Amino acid sequence: MADAVATQILVDDTRRAVFKFTNISDGTGETGVVKIDVSALSSYQGNACTSVAIQTLDAITVGLGLTLLWDATTDVVCLTLGENDFVSFNFARFGGLTNNAGAGKTGDLLFTTVGAGSGDKYTVVIEVLKYYG
Question: What is the CATH number of the domain that holds 121?
């Protein structure tokens, strides 16, 4: 079996995108799973989205932790959520959490679960600002 995961794109316009991610684990968890693939987002005037900045993040974790990573040759931790967390972050007031990964930076955002057991779960809603070029 595998974790029961879902990704919903709630908004994908020229300036921003909003995603909802869910996971009900069977105990296997997720490791480095691409959740936001910038190359799959809508383009603007023929320019592809190359990176995003997290503006807001609302999440609940039950029984597991969750690490968000910026994809690169060596992934960079963006944010860590603890086990049994309920959080609401607004990073927009300072421009958002930007991708500070180095060599091999793709612009993508990855999820890795920590300590996932059968029946553990998360729900995460993320709003991002899109960048082009």
Answer: 2.60.120
